[in-house]
Amino acid sequence: MRPTNTQVRKGCQGEIIDDWTPAGYEKHFRSYDEGLMKTHDLRNKVEGLREAAARLEPDAAHREQSLGKVAAHAEEFLRSLPHQPVYAAPGDRDEVMQAFQVREVPAGIEEALDLLGAYVDGKGQTLGSSRFFAYIPSGGLYESALADYLAAVTNPFAGVGQAAPGAVRMEESLLHWLAGVVGYPETAEGDLTSGGSMAALSAVVAAREAAAINSSRVVRSVVYLTTHTHHTFRKALHIAGLGDCVVREVAVDSRHRMDPVALQQQIQNDLDDDLSPWFIAATAGTTNAGAVDPLDEIADVAQEFKLWFHVDAAYGGSFALCETGKQRLAGLERTDSLILDPHKGFFLPCGIGVVLVRDGRKLYDAYHARGAYMQDMSHDTERSPCDFSAELTRPFRALRFWLPFKIHGSRPFAAALEEKLLLARYFYEQVSLIPEIEVGSPPDLSIVTFRYLPRDGGADTFNRRLADAIRDDGRVFLTSTTMSGHYTIRMAILNFRTHIEDVDMALAVIREKIAELAA
Ligand SMILES: *Cc1c(COP(=O)(O)O)cnc(C)c1O
């Protein structure tokens, strides 16, 4: 009886073959020939499988063809972007899920691109649109898309210096440059993360380790933040096992900024109560209103009591690149850690955040780890991102950041950021001219809040209907928040594609919808 292929690694009795010499074959099979037959079958089977999998490595002609089609699809997306609505309903769920169903049989790239066109592009919110003013806008620089393509094709192992010294040194160079932009010293270290949430987690863990907050100390450790602190910061605390810390919401001033005097008093009270004040989480650019906490004054307090001073600059940090922004962010350089989202203020596509820690050793101490299978790089003298990150294997993120800056230089970025600050100022002035509109504070950065006050009351209901009407119209996309208990509409300006005519369009839509609703 011929052994079947499924028995290939086993002998007649199902025993594992550990000796592949002729003697070994004779031990496991009735004859050496029978064993060889199995090897022959194995070879045939392997050849068959290889053929079936061959299309996973398209040849040069196919690659060129696919790339051309992808480029054409991207081009069509970008060309139509200015004329597309910034918000569109998602379409029938069952139909879309059915279309995305993975099948055993191949489809051409055209079919795949058609599905993207039909069910992904332009559905929901279009972040790349110049008329996207919701949440914190992202951008999507074209050069970053090219970089992602190259990074995936070349696929360096960017977690370990020895494995991909070029990619890793590029990241190091970027972090070094950014540290300089925010005013951190040479000792600073950092990590390119997937976004602000992960960056905050890294900072919190570094601070936790530096203060040696073990489980018995958590409940006495105090964190200071405000009601405007981004929810992902509390989430980071929770994930880091610090959910039972004492969290103080420090009072804010009339412009929604942390009050340093209230902070100081709260810390003193906590010390008097035998608690351990540990961590101040300030924000440079709140998501609600773009407010920048008074970093310099908070730094004084942090210094006085020797607390870890962290700033969430996920949205606002990029403004340090332009002159006006630098002034607004004074004190940023005095923090112990900060986060910044290049996928916001540097206009990169989603998927990149930064954490910087002034004393880089503290980030290293929190994350450095090794496995036996890494012993071949035990003499590694290269810096390795995995020593500063929760990740080991990670994409070559530096390229999507570096390439647009290399190609354009940093000046156009500074100009675009300065432009956004002025556009926000312009919007603030113009929207406050609309009768019955109440505007929030003059913008520290590029977010303006406002609401309409109808003569017959019911402001929350009216503004909710106004925000819905603006969104359903599709020309511009704004979202809302709740400030001091009031439903408030926000205008966030951050896309590199957004210019004054887009802001004028928003003003026109707001006026139009108010007139329709008030009628
Ligand atoms: C966007 C944002 C975050 C969260 O960052 P993600 O990149 O979305 O994870 C945190 N804080 C602020 C102030 C933000 O604007």
Summarize this entry quickly.
This protein has 18 helices and 13 strands.
Describe this protein's structure:
With 519 residues, the protein is of the alpha/beta class. The protein is built from 18 helices and 13 strands. Strands 3-9-8-7-6-4-5 form a seven-stranded mixed sheet, sandwiched between helices. It is globular, with a radius of gyration of 28 Å. Residues 1-8 have low confidence and may be disordered. Pyridoxal-5'-phosphate (PLP) binds next to helix 8.
Low-confidence segments, given as residue ranges, are 1-8
> What would you say the CATH architecture of the largest domain is?
3-Layer(aba) Sandwich
The major β-sheet equals: 7 strands, mixed
Helix fraction by DSSP (H/I, runs of at least 4): 40-55%
Number of strands: 13
Count the domains: 4
How many helices in DSSP terms?
Answer: 18
- Averaged pLDDT: 94
Strand content: 5-15%
- Gross geometry: globular
Determine the N-to-C terminus distance. 90 Å
CATH topology (level 3) name of the largest domain = Aspartate Aminotransferase, domain 2
Give the full name of the CATH homologous superfamily of the largest domain. Answer: Type I PLP-dependent aspartate aminotransferase-like (Major domain)
What small ligands are held by the chains?
pyridoxal-5'-phosphate
Q: Name the CATH class of the largest domain.
A: Alpha Beta
Order of adjacent strands in the largest pleated sheet: 3-9-8-7-6-4-5
